[in-house]
Amino acid sequence: MKLQDLEVLVVGNPPPGFGGRYFILVKLTTACGITGWGEVYAATVGPEAMRAVIGDVFARHMEGENPENIEWMFRKAYSAGFTQRPDPTVMGAFSGLEIACWDILGKAHDRPVHALWGGRVWDRLRSYSYLYPEPHQDPARFYNDPEASPEAARAMVAAGFTAIKFDPAGAYTVRGGHQPTMPDLDRSEAFCRAIRKAVGDRADLLFGTHGQFTPSGAIRLARRIAPYDPLWFEEPVPPDLPLDFAAVAAQSPVPISAGERLTTKAEFALLLRSGAIGIAQPNIGRVGGLLEARKIAAMAEGFGVQVAPHIYCGPIVWAAAIQLALSIPNFLILETIQTGGGFHAALLATPIRWEQGYVIPPEGPGLGVEIDEAVARAHPWTGTRLHLEMSQEPPDPRGSDRFAGG
Questions:
Q1: For residue 324, what is the domain's CATH number?
Q2: What is the reported pTM?
Q3: What one-character DSSP code corresponds to residue 10?
Q4: pLDDT, tens digit, for every residue of 222-243?
Q5: Is 308 helix (H, G, I), strand (E, B) or coil?
Q6: SS3 165
Q7: Are residue 346 and residue 284 in the same domain, yes or no?
């Protein structure tokens, strides 16, 4: 087999847009006609620039190669331009292409990906989702009013979820880590109190932040939410200062999780060695692909750290995360976008099953899913904004800066 053709589809995600504004899908085809699908999560540049990066990585390091030679292709991309260090844009491009290689290999051998590297450990996968407003609720109020959350939380638990994520600690800002404002602290505690009261011990609370705080500010916030026993406190400090995670972990009563903005085992290694995280959250579409994620999971196992794959993106990264999770003993929980319905389901020829809080793994070869190309091509992304963006305004000590939802 030789890798021959590449096509990149940038698919717009229609309202309500859960999972990001668009999904970058890659379609690889071998000279013998086997097709594999991948997805790129990293989107630090616009879609057309990212399309060019994906094309360059493919032409420079992968075109004409046997898709089995994943380690060799990774080493070439990782070291390109005399770098040999994590680069989220290049590794994001490679991640999507690498996922597609595994899809091809699984189809060539008529086996699911997890069967090619040790088989399965789990028959079904526990899942969680962000807390989203019910159809009759006002999103502008929902994401900032703790009294609006209990109804949606109870509905999720009734559907079968045993874990719920929410992130009420204020807008994400490009201005780096900061101290939480008093409204941030009060609102965060109020959300935890209201949701814990609504669900009792029937569901874990997953407290999300996205690198908003300084270490001391994160510790203050951790102490405010600790009485409600969250399962994790996610990415409390910016990812570019990895040792700050260890400073927070040393004083936080809540376990620290992180990983959606990290790429390759090199960045995870420092967090693991320093005892900075109790839960690793690699995103397969950014971290370097499935093989790199498998290595990170093995490293985490050696440090007593569980893995909760991150998937705030499209259905191909979700399918890849399912293959990873099935095969690792230290799997904890898998992110889903609600129950995987809506546009995520529409993009797949056969939707992934979700039942009573669990993802039921697809049985087909490769990733076990196929993109419905008619649906994907009918929704091209035509905007100029990035998949996800951060606020450029400074934190407001009066608490007027509000998170607008995922």
A1: 3.20.20.120
A2: 0.97
A3: E
A4: 999 999 999 999 999 999 989 9
A5: coil
A6: strand
A7: yes
